[in-house]
Write a structure and sequence with these properties.
124 residues; mainly alpha; 2 strands; elongated
Length: 124
């Protein structure tokens, strides 16, 4: 069973109008809950606005509803924290790193995270 961002936020926040309902779902279905990549990415976008320890977020989310690939999520958080990438770029770079695939992009910011980049631009 996949979870949506509102479910995770309700459980992660100190207070939320959905907290009791989300807790009931967790208690009843916790063994089959999963967090898809799209939900985790949405969560990163929302939480990027706050000064939070995103690395602990990966562990908390993974405890609530396991991530499809926790190693990619951890790499994405590192790319955001250490290299200032946006959540979308950080996640894309993490996927490329995890699968050891080159990344086609004009954005040189990917070069700093250790991704093999196939550059786009004039003359290419």
């Amino acid at each position: 069973m996949f979870v949506d961002t509102d479910f995770l936020l309700a459980l992660l926040k100190d207070s939320d109008w959905l907290k009791a309902s989300a807790q009931r779902v967790l208690d009843e279905h916790g063994a089959v809950l999963r967090t898809p990549e799209s939900t985790f990415l949405e969560l990163l976008v929302i939480l990027e606005r706050f000064d939070l320890d995103l690395a602990s977020l990966v562990a908390e989310v993974n405890d609530i509803a396991p991530l499809e690939d926790a190693s990619v999520a951890a790499l994405a958080v590192r790319n955001m924290r250490d290299h200032g990438l946006t959540p979308f770029d950080a996640y894309l770079a993490a996927k490329a790193m995890r699968w050891k695939e080159p990344l086609v992009s004009s954005d040189a910011a990917f070069d700093e995270v250790g991704v093999v980049r196939v550059p786009l631009g004039p003359g290419r």
